[in-house]
Amino acid sequence: MTLKEKAEIVDADGLRRIVTRIAHEVVERNKGVEDLVLVGIRRRGVPLAKRMAEKIQEFEGKSPSEGSLDITLYRDDLSTVAHQPVLNASEIPVDINGKIVVLVDDVLYTGRTVRAAMDALIDFGRPRSIQLAVVIDRGHRELPIRADFVGKNVPTSKKEVIGVKLTEVDGVDSVVIKEIED
Fold first, then answer.
1. Alpha-carbon distance 96 to 14, whole Å?
2. Given strand 149-153, what is the order of strands in its sheet?
């Protein structure tokens, strides 16, 4: 199975605008940054959460707390992913009890990653609410999960893959659509 890049659907400026818009929407919905915690789902959710926090700092003068979540051990497909999975640390430097936690990820697809993230998050405490912010919602949900903040809805076929590329991880900012070739 190989992936062939079909098209760039969001360029660097578009990604910057998406992050900025979601940051504004998060602050507006939650009436500021009080009790707000942005938690990025590893891997690409972490730099996205950091970028959102920086944008919020720019226009609010105050940054929300940030954290990162490794969901590896919470995945329902762990046995099919790797015999010896690589674990990264989850870092949530504040008490999330009673807080509003916004999970941040790059792509929402089946909903299974978000379910695993909620399970992992609950091990850290009991937030007042959990919200979800994603750059791309591509549909094909297998679980009853929806995002509260969406950068772009991109209807896809199951033979397509969305790739969010970030400078911090990939050296470039863009969102591409790839096709699975047999």
1. 32
2. 65-69, 36-41, 100-108, 129-137, 149-153
Residue 112 DSSP one-character state: H
Residues 58-107: tens digit of each pLDDT: 999 999 999 999 998 887 765 555 555 566 788 999 999 999 999 999 99
Please identify which residue in the block is written with the tokens 């903040």. Answer: 149
Let me know the angle formed at the C-alpha of 30 by 154 and 163, rounded to the nearest 5 degrees: 25
Task: Provide the residue count of the chain.
Answer: 182
CATH number belonging to the domain at 13-157, selected among 3.40.640.10, 2.60.260.20, 3.40.50.2020, 3.30.590.20: 3.40.50.2020
Q: Where are the alpha helices (DSSP H) in the chain?
A: 12-29, 45-60, 78-81, 112-122, 167-170
The full set of domain ranges for the chain reads 13-157
| Strand 149-153 relative to strand 36-41, pairing | unpaired
